[in-house]
Amino acid sequence: MFYYDLFETAGKYTSLQEMVDTLSKDSYFCDEMKQVVPLLLKNNNAYEKPDNSHLMNFPLKLHGIYTKSQIQVAIGTSTLEKKSPAREGVERNKNTKVEAMFVDIIKNREEGSTTDYDDKALTSNLFQWDTQNRVRSDSNEGKAYINQTQTMLLFVREQKNFAEDKSRTMGYVYLGKVTLKDWEYKNLGTRYQMQIRWKMVDEIPASVMHYARMKEVI
């Protein structure tokens, strides 16, 4: 995760030890880290809890805030050798049967898009989530959701960019493992998508609930 905090592409080092050894020789980098890390810790206002996914050696903390690159490393779709190319709102590791859902409450709809994603918290224990419009109940993805054959992890943020600084990207709050409550088809005219209601293993914190109930598209 730290590697992708520093570098945008994979393959710069063959091992984490090589990265640490190289960076430790850079006095400017070391001095900057000594100044930055205490400031980050002081300003960290995320009230983290132990993870509830029960995944082996999973590095994320419940209610912690993470970048998409960090999450991709955590679920194993990005490595030192290869960075995940995924740009969709979900990220699947087929080997470990883990799927991360990335949700923006306030949507920034791409030009020409006709899909209306109504993702929001219904209560602190229930979250509504719309699949992509190609996902039907008889598709592989749909069957995985219905039969709960994979671990589903929910990541939520208010919107993609900070309102006061559009050049800065918001991180996702890790809301932990969710399980299926129920689902139905959402009629899009000529297409359908699944609208799923997930039960939270741990309640959504108040700091997220105040915006997670919103429904807005920009």
Structure description:
- This protein has 218 residues and is α+β, with helices and mostly antiparallel strands.
- The protein folds into 2 domains: 1-44, no CATH class; 47-217, Roll (PUA domain-like).
- It contains 6 helices and 12 strands.
- It has helices spanning 2-6, 16-24, 27-43, 68-74, 140-147, 206-212; strands at 65-66, 90-93, 98-104, 106-107, 120-123, 126-130, 151-157, 161-162, 165-169, 172-187, 192-200, 216-217.
- The strands form 3 sheets. Strands 1, 2, 3, 5, 6, 7, 10 and 11 form an 8-stranded mixed sheet that branches. A two-stranded parallel sheet has the order 4-12. Strands 8-9 form a two-stranded antiparallel sheet.
- The longest helix has 17 residues, at 27-43.
- The chain is globular and about 60 Å long.
- It starts with a helix and ends with a strand.
- The mean pLDDT is 90.
Key features?
PUA domain-like; 218 residues; 2 domains; 12 strands; alpha+beta; two-stranded parallel ribbon; 6 helices
Topology:
Blueprint: H1 2-6, H2 16-24, H3 27-43, E1 65-66, H4 68-74, E2 90-93, E3 98-104, E4 106-107, E5 120-123, E6 126-130, H5 140-147, E7 151-157, E8 161-162, E9 165-169, E10 172-187, E11 192-200, H6 206-212, E12 216-217
Parallel strand pairs: 3-7, 4-12
Antiparallel strand pairs: 1-10, 2-3, 5-6, 6-11, 7-10, 8-9, 10-11
Q: How many domains?
A: 2
Q: Tell me the name of the CATH class of the largest domain.
A: Mainly Beta
How much strand content do the residues show?
25-35%
Q: What does the radius of gyration come to?
A: 19 Å
The strand count comes to 12
Q: State the shape.
A: globular
Helix content: 10-25%
Which topology of the largest domain does CATH recognise? PUA domain-like
What is the overall pLDDT average? 90
CATH architecture term of the largest domain: Roll
Task: Give the name of the CATH superfamily of the largest domain.
Answer: SRA-YDG
Query: Helix/strand-derived class?
Result: alpha+beta
* Distance between the amino and carboxyl termini: 31 Å
